[in-house]
């Protein structure tokens, strides 16, 4: 199964002609999952190879506008481009994000009279008090949203509390993926997401099966799916005996804006990530200012990559002062390549690769090879 990550916006605070506001897409076999949706994400999508209509899930890391303001407009445009089919009702778009997101979307879509041709559901993560400074705790107004009427296309969503034992938020599990969220510290409660692909069963050792007298047929499928089978002779063949080593699933982790991790959950969820996407808003020379605004520097991002033994660290969410490499602004104080050097220096003994994201950069995530 092919898998890749495309950055649609890599700038912080606002979209500029050089860097869009935060958004990236994880694509697997044509299915697109969108992470954050800053203003202008829909036009960035149109300029990319991706199709907005393929977005089936949206994950919002936190409620700052540079990660969220593009979402109502994007949903409306997906709807405009949808041709209603009488035979196949459109699938529900699942949106995951912090508490308050349901209210935001409901108000934005309802007040603007936006009609959607497809249903959507918002699944809210309940933040804990230690995810932001006390003065910026979001106002708690559950009563207000309980009495609001839902948008006609809104389906009931889940409210997901922290699973204290695992220090994470279980979001979804299907036959291909397990997705959890974890807590980050920022000016507003922020979250990261870990997408773990399930391991694939190894190949069947057909020679051994023949030697055991197992004939090709449905029995092969049962063994491959992990079931033991009993032969006519009474001999039980277990999958372990006849399956080669499983192919480990890939892991992609996307962190929202942060100046620190909260609890043990983030490192547990990101352990051994194939790709770790982490913000680096300002260079290490501006560390104090970065932290003051709830942000990270390349060295701070590298420390997270080191702690979870990530194979690849992708930096994004750059201050708009750092122009893309393609503009050829190397050498100055605002040279974005300097951010990569800072992270590389902090990771030089680890083998972790550092990548600078630019708008429209696509990173393939190949199937792991067995050694
Ligand atoms: Zn931001
Ligand atoms: Zn932010």
UniProtKB/TrEMBL annotation:
Residues 148-157 have a biased composition (Basic and acidic residues). CDD domains: RNaseZ_ZiPD-like_MBL-fold. It holds the Pfam family Anti-Pycsar_Apyc1. Residues 128-159 are annotated as: Disordered. GO terms for cellular component: nucleus. Transmembrane segments: none annotated. Residues 247-318 form the Metallo-beta-lactamase domain. Keywords: Endonuclease, Hydrolase, Metal-binding, Nuclease, tRNA processing, Zinc. GO terms for molecular function: 3'-tRNA processing endoribonuclease activity; metal ion binding. SUPFAM superfamilies: Metallo-hydrolase/oxidoreductase (SSF56281). Its cofactor is Zn(2+). Homodimer. This is Metallo-beta-lactamase domain-containing protein. It comes from Conger conger (Conger eel).
